Amino acid sequence: MADYCDHAPGHPFHGPYHDREYGFPVSDDTALFERLILEINQAGLSWLTVLKKRTAFQTAFEGFDIDRIAAYGDTERERLLSDAGIIRNRLKVDATIHNAKVVQSLQAEYGSFEAWLNAHHPLPLDEWLKLFKRTFRFTGREIVNEFLMSTGYLPGAHRDDCPVHARILASGPAWACQENDPRSQGI
After folding, report:
1. Contacts of residue 156, Cβ cutoff 8 Å, sequence gap at least 6
2. What's the whole-model pTM score?
């Protein structure tokens, strides 16, 4: 997404995301879950649409509280589907609820969503994609790629000459630690 480094800086929505979030390591399960759900909701739409609706998503999904969302039933589903502030797509809403339950099971087995990611790291994108498709709902190639790039598991969020890239490297993203690992190269 090299052109993102050209047009995002200074933009009221893209700028803060580009400068402070995109590509930086994420360790908090709630933040990881939010990022996954935002990427799922971006499918078929622009990232700007999602960023503009981000606050509404945070409100509608109660701060992306995994346990609360996992407990959602028909009443909450209908509330979400009638909320004009978010993307009202039944498949995406259902995937969010389902994926919250999946994250709960990963937390029970691995201790956290982050620990599950770390247990499988590093993998080449095709292997990550297979893993996500087996584990979650509504996770195609672009969703998985963007989720992993945005959270520091895969490189490519910024150009090497982007000033943010140096800050990301200094924060120790998982992909920077894997560059010499043959598993990350598909070998």
Report:
1. 1, 149
2. 0.94
Binding site as annotated, residues:
5, 18
CB atoms within 10 A of CB 2: 12
* Residues that constitute the known binding site for Zn(2+): 5, 18
| 54/60 Cα distance (integer angstroms) | 10
In the chain, the domains with their CATH numbers are: 4-185 (1.10.340.30)
Tokens representing 46 are 């622009």
Is the bond preceding 25 in cis, omega lying within 30 degrees of 0?
no
pLDDT in tens, 48-106: 999 999 999 999 999 999 999 999 999 999 999 999 999 999 999 999 999 999 999 99
Cβ neighbors of 177 (< 8 A, separation 6 or more) are: none
